[in-house]
Amino acid sequence: MGKQKKIAVIQDISGFGRCSLTVALPVISAMKVQCCPVITSVFSNHTGYPQYFFDDYTDRMPFYIEKWKQLGLSFDGIYTGFLGSAEQIRIVQDFIRDFKRPETKVIIDPVMGDNGTAYITYTPQLCERMRGLAVQADLLTPNVTELCILTGTPYGNGRFTIKQYEEMAEALAVMGPERIVITGIRQGGYIANGIYQKNRPFRLCRAKSAGQCRCGTGDLFASIVAADAVNGVDFVKSVQKAAGFVKKCIVRSQELEIPLTDGVCFEEFLGQLR
Predict the structure, then answer these.
(1) What pLDDT, on a 0 to 100 scale, did the predictor assign at position 121?
(2) Residue 188's pLDDT is what?
(3) Which among 49, 48, 21 has a CA at the least distance from the CA of 35?
């Protein structure tokens, strides 16, 4: 199989809009890790646009994955993003069971909602299924909304103390993940990431907010963290690198007057990722 690291990335692909696999593939590749996609669905462009083409690949995923099993493929990382149904979550759970080795890092970005609201597809039953997947993660990357959903905490106004963030992270860690980064914590004119590692102090890394929220920035952040995880990069340094890279891309996207729906122009800085 060779010595180069490999990550199986289980996500949808959007032809336009810079999110999911169209972010993960170039970013992970730039970080010298082979990105091996498992496509959950195909979009012409993401759903933030007024119209889009959509093709669900759920029923084809098992046949696709079966060929990988027959070939005896193995991966240093398994990274999941948005999953649209209970059946897709079940398929991912089976994938982890079949392909995870002791050294394989499982990175789960539990894409379930934002700004205090679950996405329309995420029924209470589907949220419960995502909790079942989250316990299989080595590294989990929820935003504040997803953290609340996973821990059963009322979102309220979305403002929590550092101690409360730590307690929610600990509640998740009891289920399985050893490393958790809580993304998008807003503190006035700052935005922070809460970093939890078992048996280490909880810490908050923050920086001045760079501008408006853009599509795909969560995918960009999680892809960098995933590649760093299999490359053995220190977790705190990885989170700081990912946050700094996303901020740089947001600033440049504003300079180029790129519409918010079009995501961030990470291509401008891709060569800086290592």
Answers:
(1) 87
(2) 85
(3) 21
Read off the amino acid at residue 111: V
Q: Which residues contact 237 (CB under 8 A, 6 or more apart)?
A: 228
Task: Say if residue 22's pLDDT is above 80.
Answer: yes
How far, in Å, are 24, 41, 198, 260 from residue 235 at the CA level? Answer: 19, 31, 12, 29
CB 33 within 8 A of CB 230: yes
Token pair 């810490």 is found at: 203
Confidence of residue 210 (pLDDT cuts 50, 70, 90): confident
Largest CA distance in the chain: 52
Helix 124-134 vs helix 86-99: crossing angle, to nearest 10: 10
Q: Calculate the CA 93 to chain-centre distance.
A: 16
- pLDDT at res. 116: 94
Copy the structure tokens of residue 116: 């205090």
CA dist., res. 91 & res. 126, Å (int): 14
pLDDT above 90 for 212: no
For 45-67, what is each residue's pLDDT tens digit?
999 999 999 999 999 999 999 99
Residue pLDDT, tens place only, 81-125: 999 999 999 999 999 999 999 999 999 999 999 999 999 889 999
CB neighbour list of residue 169: distance below 8 Å, 6 or more residues apart:
147, 180, 182, 194, 196, 202
Q: Residue 105 pairs with which residues in a beta bridge?
A: 77
CB 208 within 8 A of CB 190: yes
Looking at this protein, which amino acid is placed at residue 208?
A: K
Task: Report the distance separating Cα 232 and Cα 105, nearest Å.
Answer: 10
Non-local CB neighbours of 26 within 8 Å, separated by 6+ positions: 266, 267, 270
SS3 77: strand
Contact 130, 150 (CB under 8 A): yes
